[in-house]
Amino acid sequence: MPLASRRRETRADYWPGFVDAMATLLLVIIFLLSLFMLAQFFLSQELTGRESALQRLNAQIAELSELLALERAGNTEQADEVASMNASLEALMAQRDNLQGVLAGEADASGEQDAQVAALRDQLRSEQQIGADALSRVAILNEQLRALRRQMAALEEALNASEARDQESQTRLADLGRRLNLALAQRVQILNRFRSDFFGRLRDILAARSGVEVVGDRFVFQSEVLFPTGSDALNVEGQEELAKLATELIALESEIPSDIDWVLRVDGHTDARPLSGAGRFRSNWELSAARAISVVQYLIGQGVLPQRLVAAGFGEFRPILDEASDEAFARNRRIELKLTER
C-alpha cells in the first residue's frame, strides 16, 4: 500500500510542468502572431504607398503617351524630342515593371523593405534638419530686417530733426537779414544826413566860385579850376579850394560815428580828345588817374586821414555830355568828389 501510494504521488507531479510548458508555448505563439500582424500591417502600408506610386507612374505614362500621340500627329519636325520622350516612357515603364516586381516579391524581400524604410527615415530626418536650418536663417533675416527698420526709423528721426534745425536756421537768417538791412538802411540814412550837411557847407563856401557845381550826390570841379591844361600839378587857386574842402573833411571826421566806414572818393575825368603822346602822359587814363591822386595827396597833406580817401581815374569813358563840342569837352574835363561808404 505505501508503494502504490508513492507511485500515484510521483505521476501527479508531471502535470504542473506540462501546464507551464503549454502556457509558455501559447505565449510564444501569441507573440509570433503579434509580430506577424505588425509585419503585415507595415507591409500593407508599404504596399499601399507602392501602389499609389505605381498609379502615379501609370498616370504619367498615360499623359506622356497622349503627348507623344499629339506630337506625332501635329509636328513631324520634333523627332528628336519624340525620341527623348520615348526614352523617358521606356524608362518609366521599366520603373513600373521594377515596382511590379518589387510588389510581387514583397513578402520575400522584407529585409530590403526595412532598408528602404530606414533610408526613407534618414531622408525625412535630413529634410527636417534642412527645414530647421531654413527656419533658423529666416529668423536671422527677420532680426536683420527689424534692425534695418530701427535704423531707418532713427535716420528718419534724425532727418526730421535736421529739417527742423534748418527751418529754424533759415528763420534766424531771415530775421538777421532783416535786421542787417535795417541797420544798413539806418547807416545809409546817417551817412546821407552827414553828406547833406557836408555838401551844404561846401556849397556855402564854394557858392561864389565859378567852375564848381553840385551834380546829384557829387561835387564837380572843372579841371581848369584845379589844374593847368594837360598837367596833374595843382595850381594856386585849386590848392585854395581844396584847403577849404580839407577843413570841412577834418571837421566831418569828428562828427560821423566811428562805426560808419565812410570815404571821400575822388574821380578824375578827361574829354575824349587823345593826348599827343609826346608829354608825360601817354593816355587820358593816366592823366585822369594822376589828377585824382594829386587831389588825394594834397588833402592828406592838409591833415585828412588817408584811409578816408580813394582816388580813381576814368579817362574819357564817363562823359557828362556825349558831344564833340568845346563846351562838351570843357564839361567832361572834371574832378568829382563823392562822400560814400566803403
Gist?
With 342 residues, this protein is α+β, with helices and mostly antiparallel strands. The protein contains 8 helices and 5 strands, in the order ααααββααβαβαβ. The longest helix has 97 residues, at 110-206.
Describe the structure.
It is a single chain. The chain is α+β, with helices and mostly antiparallel strands and 342 residues long. The chain folds into three domains: 36-103; 128-158; 189-341, 60s Ribosomal Protein L30, Chain: A (2-Layer Sandwich), CATH 3.30.1330.60. It has eight helices and five strands; from the N terminus they run ααααββααβαβαβ. It has helices spanning 2-12, 14-74, 79-104, 110-206, 223-226, 236-255, 284-301, 326-332; strands spanning 212-215, 218-222, 262-269, 309-313, 334-341. It has a five-stranded mixed beta sheet with strand order 1-2-5-3-4. Strand 1 (212-215) and strand 2 form a beta hairpin. Helix 6 (236-255) packs across helix 7. It is rod-shaped, with a radius of gyration of 62 Å. The mean pLDDT is 78.
Strand and helix map with partners:
Elements (H helix, E strand, L loop, with lengths): L1 H11 L1 H61 L4 H26 L5 H97 L5 E4 L2 E5 H4 L9 H20 L6 E8 L14 H18 L7 E5 L12 H7 L1 E8 L1
Parallel strand pairs: 3-4
Antiparallel strand pairs: 1-2, 2-5, 3-5
Helix pairs in contact: 2-3, 4-6, 6-7
